[in-house]
What we know:
Elements: H1 3-33, H2 39-49, H3 54-76, H4 85-123, H5 126-132, H6 137-174, H7 180-190, H8 193-219, H9 224-255
Helix pairs in contact: 1-6, 2-6, 3-4, 3-6, 4-6, 4-7, 4-8, 4-9, 6-8, 8-9
Amino acid sequence: xxxxxxxxxxxxxxxxxxxxxxxxxxxxxxxxxxxxxxxxxxxxxxxxxxxxxxxxxxxxxxxxxxxxxxxxxxxxxxxxxxxxxxxxxxxxxxxxxxxxxxxxxxxxxxxxxxxxxxxxxxxxxxxxxxxxxxxxxxxxxxxxxxxxxxxxxxxxxxxxxxxxxxxxxxxxxxxxxxxxxxxxxxxxxxxxxxxxxxxxxxxxxxxxxxxxxxxxxxxxxxxxxxxxxxxxxxxxxxxxxxxxxxxxxxxxxxxx
Length: 256
């Protein structure tokens, strides 16, 4: 019950986890650049991460853009600044909401799937069987997921940006009585390449974080079915928290 002992255990536990994660990250990144390259596995993961995540990302983006346009219109109408709707929607979607919301949705879907799959392989000793067969599990299981997630997330976010801006356009034109040509002109006038590129860079980092957390927790799970469930929960929670932290750091670097 000593308070100092409790604090010490927490600090030592945190440092132990941070050290294990750092070593795992170094091994995972190095395995991405070392031969052989399993192109078939990378393609399969691209399909699972990118293509199958399109519906949830698209629905999230279109309704986010629509709600954003409504809320901005309601707020700006108090100051007779309704013309700023197009400006704020496109900047908010491309810089922040597109990458972050896509990362959160994909993190919940893909991170849990990766942790559950690798965790099941760990507790059923399939990963140990790969080592016995002289197959590097980091190279065979982790590297394809990291590469595929880092590639797929920017593609998903680019599509989410288009759909999100289109959602704001549809609400503004059909519900708020904006002129369609004027709205599109304002959108393209304010949009800059840096806005889109910064969002795509964020998306690549988010994809790496999602795959890293899913693989780390699944790879190190233990304790049967309960351990797999715990690893899945930890993968999702840690991945989403790191996405929000990384988003703040990158926003400060890009736009401060």
